[in-house]
């Protein structure tokens, strides 16, 4: 059993299953709620979800969020806004990352085309890398595409360079994607 600082336990039987409706859902089994954990939580959110809305919001993310939130035991932050292109990441979102115990990064074909997602990723790596609390999910992309920035990830970075985003920022995003892609995670082709 793996313990979370909020003093409840997530059992090791975490995994994906296919239901009779043929969708994927993540099952977490939560238990053991000491009273002090409920009164003085260390983290505002147990999980921060980072995802590209156009790829996953109405399908995979909605099911994942539902499963995480089902027992009201795992407090999950999910940004519900559809963002306009070029919008900067909000201070509230940066704060939500800082106040989260764990981040689930859902890397999908268009993830890297969003500067917002990449800025989120940089903040997640900054806050959580040392604690080993980042879980990547490779949704419709091979981990090697993310790690090496090939395919749609290469195309996205070509577009970012054409938009005159600083070389330093682009290199930071690439380094962060590589770090996250090298972590143990889940690949949707194995669900």
Task: Please outline the helices and strands.
Blueprint: E1 2-3, E2 9-10, E3 15-18, E4 24-27, E5 30-31, H1 35-39, E6 45-50, H2 53-69, E7 76-77, H3 91-98, E8 100-107, H4 115-128, E9 134-138, H5 143-148, H6 152-162, H7 167-181, E10 186-187
Parallel strand pairs: 6-7, 6-8, 8-9, 9-10
Antiparallel strand pairs: 1-2, 2-5, 3-4
Helix pairs in contact: 3-4, 4-7
InterPro entries: TIR_dom (IPR000157), Toll_tir_struct_dom_sf (IPR035897)
Domain TIR: 43-191
GO biological process, one term: signal transduction
| Approximate shape | globular
CATH homology superfamily name: Toll/interleukin-1 receptor homology (TIR) domain
Alpha carbon gyration radius: 17 Å
Q: What portion of residues belong to β-strands?
A: 15-25%
The average pLDDT value, as a whole number, equals: 78
The residue ranges in which pLDDT falls below 50 over 5 or more consecutive positions are: 1-40
SSE order, one letter for each helix or strand: EEEEEHEHEHEHEHHHE
Question: What is the CATH topology classification name?
Answer: Rossmann fold
Content-based structural category: alpha/beta
CATH-derived architecture: 3-Layer(aba) Sandwich
**Count of distinct structural domains:** 1
Helical content class: 25-40%
Largest sheet: 5 strands, parallel
Folded structure, characterized:
The chain has 191 residues and is of the alpha/beta class. It has one domain: Toll/interleukin-1 receptor homology (TIR) domain (Rossmann fold, 3-Layer(aba) Sandwich), CATH 3.40.50. 40% of the residues lie in helices and 19% in strands. The chain is built from 7 helices and 10 strands. The protein has helices at 35-39, 53-69, 91-98, 115-128, 143-148, 152-162, 167-181; strands spanning 2-3, 9-10, 15-18, 24-27, 30-31, 45-50, 76-77, 100-107, 134-138, 186-187. Helix 4 links the parallel strand 8 and strand 9. The radius of gyration is 17 Å and the shape is globular. Residues 1-40 have low confidence and may be disordered. InterPro entries: TIR_dom (IPR000157), Toll_tir_struct_dom_sf (IPR035897). Residues 43-191 form the TIR domain. One of its GO terms (biological process) is signal transduction. It holds the Pfam family TIR.
């Amino acid at each position: 059993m793996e313990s979370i600082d909020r003093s409840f336990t997530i059992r090791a039987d975490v995994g994906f299953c296919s239901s009779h409706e043929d969708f994927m859902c993540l099952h977490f089994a939560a238990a053991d709620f000491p009273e002090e954990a409920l009164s003085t939580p260390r983290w505002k959110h147990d999980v921060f979800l980072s995802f590209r809305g156009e790829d996953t919001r109405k399908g995979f993310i909605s099911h994942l969020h539902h499963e995480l939130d089902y027992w009201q035991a795992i407090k999950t932050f999910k940004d519900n806004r559809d963002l306009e292109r070029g919008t900067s990441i909000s201070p509230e979102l940066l704060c939500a990352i800082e106040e989260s115990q764990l981040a689930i990064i859902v890397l999908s074909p268009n993830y890297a085309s969003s500067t917002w997602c990449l800025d989120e990723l940089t903040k997640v790596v900054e806050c959580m890398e040392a604690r080993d609390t980042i879980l990547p999910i490779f949704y419709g992309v091979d981990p090697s595409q993310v790690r090496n920035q090939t395919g749609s990830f290469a195309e996205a970075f070509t577009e970012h360079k054409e938009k005159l985003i600083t070389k330093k920022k682009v290199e930071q995003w690439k380094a962060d994607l590589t770090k996250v892609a090298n972590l143990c995670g889940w690949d949707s082709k194995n669900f």
